[in-house]
Amino acid sequence: MTSPMTDLHAAAKACLDASDPAEKLRLTHAAWDAVQAGLLRPDPAAAPPEPIGAPGRPARPQLVSARQVPQRGLGSAEGRAALVHAVAHIEFNAINLAWDAVYRFRGMPDNYYRDWVGCAHDEARHFGLLSARLAELGHAYGDLDAHNGLWEMAEKTAHSDTARMALVPRVLEARGLDVTPGMIDRLRHAGDERTVAVLEVILREEVAHVAAGTRWYRWCCERDGVDPIEHFFDLLRDYMGVALRGPFNRPARLEAGFVEAELDRLAGLAGADPGR
């Protein structure tokens, strides 16, 4: 049996399986430290990945459909706590998504694994910041219902590293680049500078995560001999139909590796203003 102390895939599985948030964060940070120290590397002889299932997560929050998650205004402490809880849930899912990208897709370049372990480390830190802010607001992760949309897309793309890189970081996670500036503006108007400070850290660092998705999506397309722009829109159509929402944060998406032609087509599909 390959030791999880030396095989990166086994360490990724241990992080994925951890259900207690504090333990998931501890294992994630320890794995990042070990990767940086050269103590964890992918083992070509490691057991192949198991079929994808639910990752380790606590019994709460209760998972419901996105339509059942209540929308609350930011004028009250309860509304702001609900927003922080929703973002914390996204970041918790993002930890698992990054680890699944390490665990599931084998034979990738070393820098691919380093990128996604680094993303898991960042997402774990973001979850910690949001959990601390939730505590200040009198709540804890799990107090409110949440939805499972991010992980559902991980399940749909478990068979394809190309589809995973295209649709999780470049579509679902990139949505955070679009909506977070508006959240920050509304929170600042409500006088909640402590939550604003956390979201500004997350927004700044999420650009690099979407950029990692772009980088490895294009690498996969070059490997597979497909045009990255045309294939991206084929994948969007096949997996998501035309249910896109705009507007798009054009400067942040350009920084994250999108090109003008992609953004123009995205804006057209969503009926958004391409000039933002």
Offer a concise description of the structure.
It is built from ten helices and no strands. With 276 residues, the protein is mainly α.
Which structural traits does this protein have?
globular, Ferritin, 276 residues, 10 helices, mainly alpha
Describe the model.
The chain has helices at residues 8-17, 21-36, 77-104, 110-136, 149-156, 161-189, 193-224, 228-240, 250-255, 260-270. It is mainly alpha-helical and 276 residues long. The protein is globular. The N and C termini lie far apart (53 Å). The model has no long low-confidence stretch (mean pLDDT 93).
Structural class label: mainly alpha
CATH class label: Mainly Alpha
Please give the count of helices: 10
Distance between the termini: 53 Å
Tertiary shape: globular
Largest sheet: none
How many structural domains are formed by the residues?
1
Would you tell me which CATH topology applies?
A: Ferritin
Mean pLDDT: 93
Beta-sheet strand percentage?
under 5%
Oligomer: single chain
| Poorly predicted regions | none
Portion of residues in helices?
Answer: 55-70%
Q: Could you give the order of the helices and strands?
A: HHHHHHHHHH
Question: What's the Cα radius of gyration?
Answer: 18 Å
Q: Please identify, by name, the CATH architecture.
A: Up-down Bundle
Number of strands: 0
Secondary-structure map:
Elements lengths: L7 H10 L3 H16 L40 H28 L5 H27 L12 H8 L4 H29 L3 H32 L3 H13 L9 H6 L4 H11 L6
Helix pairs in contact: 1-2, 1-3, 2-4, 3-4, 3-6, 4-7, 5-6, 6-7
